[in-house]
Amino acid sequence: MNLKQIEAFVKIANNNSFSRTAKELYLTQPTVSAYITNLEAELGVQLFARTTKSVDLTEEGRRIYLYAREMVELSYTIQNMFRADRKDEPERQIVVSASTLPAQYLLPRILAEFSRRYPQTRFRVIESDSEGVIADIVDHKADLGFVGTAVPRPNCEYVPFFQDELVVVTPNTDRYRQLREAKGSMDWLLEEAFVLREDGSGTRREALAYLKELGIEENRLRIVANFANSDAVLMSVREGIGISVISRLAAQESIRRGDVLDFQLAEKGAFRRIYMVTSQIRPASDAVQKMAALVKKLYGNV
C-alpha cells in the first residue's frame, strides 16, 4: 500500500469517476485503475462497485474512507508547511450523514454558509434514517451526523440544535375540518388508518412516543403503509390513504397549500429535538470542529 494508491482511492470516491480522477492526478486511466486493483488485492476486499453508469463505494470502501482521506489530507498539510505561499489552503472534505428531515430542510443552509466561509471544503453527504446515521458515526464512516432522535449508542455525543413540532396531518375533507373545529379529544385517531415513516426513522420513533403519551400504543394503530420519505407520506395522506404524524417542517408547504390539514398533538404543541452527532472516541478534524461551531451559531442549542 502506498500514498498514491490511497490518494487515487479517495479522489475516485469523491468524484465517483475513474476518468475524472485520472485527469486531476495527471495520470492515465489504466494507471489509476491499476492503483485500485493493486490496493484491492492487497486488502483482500472490493472497494468500489463499478457499472457502466456509476462508481460507488462498497461497504468495505466506506469503512476505510475516512482513514484514507485523513492520510491524504495530512500529506497535503506536510507539503504546504514548506511552501513559499502558505495562504493556499489544501482542500478539505467533510463526510456528513443525515436523516431525511435535517438532510432536506436544515443541512442545505448549513453547507451553504460553511462554503461561503471556507470555500476550499467539499462535502460528501450520506442520507439515511436516524439509526443508519448513528451507525455511520459509530463505524467511522462519517465525520458528523444529523438525526431527528437520540438513538442510545455508546461513544456518541448528541448536541440538540433545532426544535421541530410533530403534528397530525389528515386529508383536507369536510369530516376532518369538522373534527378540527370541534377541538375535542384525540380518541378519533384510533379509528383511522395510518401511514408512517419506515422503521429506523427518527420521526416515526418520536411520533409513536407522543401517541403513547396520549394512551395510544403502537399495537392499537392500524398502520396501512410505511414510507422512506416525508413527501411520500404527505402524498398518501392527501390522496386519502390514511393520516399521519409528521414533522411540521416537512409538512408546512402542504399545509399552506391546503393539501392536508394539521392537528396539534398537545395543547402547546408536541416538540422534538434535532441533534448533531459526533464520535466521542475519534478526534474531530479542524474542519469538523468549525462546522459544529457554525451549527451552534446558526441555530443555537435548544
Q: Can you tell me about this structure?
A:
This protein is an alpha/beta fold and 302 residues long. Among the domains are: 90 residues, Orthogonal Bundle (Arc Repressor Mutant, subunit A), CATH 1.10.10.10; 108 residues, D-Maltodextrin-Binding Protein, domain 2, CATH 3.40.190. It has 12 helices and 11 strands. Strands 3, 4, 5, 6, 9, 10 and 11 form a 7-stranded mixed sheet that branches. Helix 9 links the parallel strand 7 and strand 8.
CATH fold category name of the domain at 164-271: D-Maltodextrin-Binding Protein, domain 2
The CATH superfamily of the domain at 164-271 appears as Periplasmic binding protein-like II
Shape: elongated
Proper CATH architecture of the domain at 164-271 = 3-Layer(aba) Sandwich
Q: Could you list the spans in which at least 5 consecutive residues all have pLDDT below 50? A: none
Secondary-structure element string: HHHEEHEHHEHEEHEHEHEHEEH
**Strand percentage:** 15-25%
Mean pLDDT: 89
